[in-house]
Amino acid sequence: LEWDVVAVPGLVTGVFPADPKSVDWTRARQLLPAPLRGDYAELPALPLDGAADKKQVAAVLKQHAADVRERHQDEERRLAYVALTRARSTLLVSGYAWDTAKSARTVSPFLEQVRELATVDEWFVPDVDAENPRLGVTVTAPWPLDPLGARRADVVAGAELVRAALAKPPPRDAGRALLPGLLDDTASRQDGWRHSVDVLLAEQARLRSGAAIEVVLPGQLSVSQLVALQRDADGLARRLRRPLPARPAPLARRGTAFHSWLEQRWSAQTLLDVDDLPGAADDGADDADLIALQAAFERSHWAERTPVELEVPFEMALGGTVIRGRMDAVFAEPGGGYTVVDWKTGAKPEGADAKAAAVQLAAYRLAWAALSGTAVERIGAAFHYVRTDDTVTPVDLLDAKGLERLIAG
Question: Rounded CA gap, 303 and 263, in Å?
């Protein structure tokens, strides 16, 4: 494709071409290993077959890093070629010396080469010892920010006119004579409000009379919704029928922070969905307690073990319903079994709440059985309440048919 005018700004070293940061998969764990990529044949090779000791491996890795950087430069040049050849008649290219860095930027080699063929408006090269002029400018702004900004004077003047008009008694029927459409619209809105109130009151009356309202479960449920179905089916039905924003739960953030700390502790790198943040269903703890929670965990026997998996997402079908969730940690046990553990930073529930919470472990147990290909009888599940160093392993967890009956009921 071509355009009449193409502008390519930012031709400075470190921007275009970009710095070769996080381009070597052997040094950046978030990158896909080269052998797993579709363009593997075009990537620098990593010949480790002939490396017999650590020194030789280091030499191979060093050469591989240099090859990766060279390929990165070639890719940047190809990108520059594409950008500069899109112009049908006019090409504008530019660079700059100063941004937020303390030192001046140096010109891109691409801009240097284009300079020989272009009409140069200005070519500025700062002194080596020059200071960034942008850093010497203090940026100020009023706080708190005035939402009206430059409009404030006009708004205040308009408000004074309204107050002055309100201070004078209006002539009889003046409003209807001057604003008939506005009054008619107001009456229409009032009728709409009255209808909405009548509908809400009628629904409240039906609920108080005990009249049942059928609510169809969606085809996909989260594990937390599954627990809510066991704990308070009517409450879940009301939330499904009329979803409302959840009340802010700052204490749950501490549970999330604790789970993140565990991930870092075991050097886990996972991708989290916002709705599935670990700890979102916990009662949480006060902000000042995070260090105490970490210390309590380090004293537990789980601190001495290493999980085989962390933050395992899953989706499984139970009957006609898909259950989705995320398991906190899975530990291998002697003899080929596993234990799925869910970390809890809040208080341990009792009675019916404890029975409902066990549904969560039942779902995790079935999900890991499917993911690992292990018989469900060889998989245990437990809650570990970090604050009190109390591991609870419920017995008689629901099996697949039990969970299906819960959903069907």
Answer: 12
pLDDT tens-digit series, residues 281-312: 444 445 667 888 889 999 999 999 999 998 89
The three-point CA angle 353-328-32 to 5° equals 155
pLDDT value at position 280? 43
pLDDT value for 255 = 80
Q: 396 exposed, middle or buried (CB, 10 Å; 0-12, 13-18, 19+)?
A: exposed
Mean pLDDT score, 396-402: 88
Given a contact cutoff of 8 angstroms between Cβ atoms, the answer to whether 408 and 368 are in contact is no
Secondary structure class of 46 (helix, strand, coil): coil
Kindly state the tokens that stand for 167: 């201070």
Q: How many residues does the chain have?
A: 409
Q: Do residues 217 and 307 touch, judged by C-beta distance below 8 A?
A: no
Distance CA 250, CA 283 (A): 10
pTM of the model: 0.47
Distance CA 312, CA 329 (A): 7
Return the closest-CA partner of residue 317 out of 221, 197, 206: 221
Q: Return the DSSP state at 170.
A: P
Give the whole-angstrom CA distance, residue 280 versus residue 385.
15
Q: What is the DSSP letter of 39?
A: T
Neighbouring CB atoms inside 10 A of 353's CB total: 14
Residue 390: name the closest of 326, 307, 297, 288 by CA. Answer: 297
Cα–Cα distance measured from residue 285 to residue 276, given in angstroms and rounded to the nearest whole number: 19
Instruction: Retrieve residue 366's tokens.
Output: 């079935």
d(CA 210, CA 135): 70
Q: What single letter denotes the amino acid at residue 57?
A: V
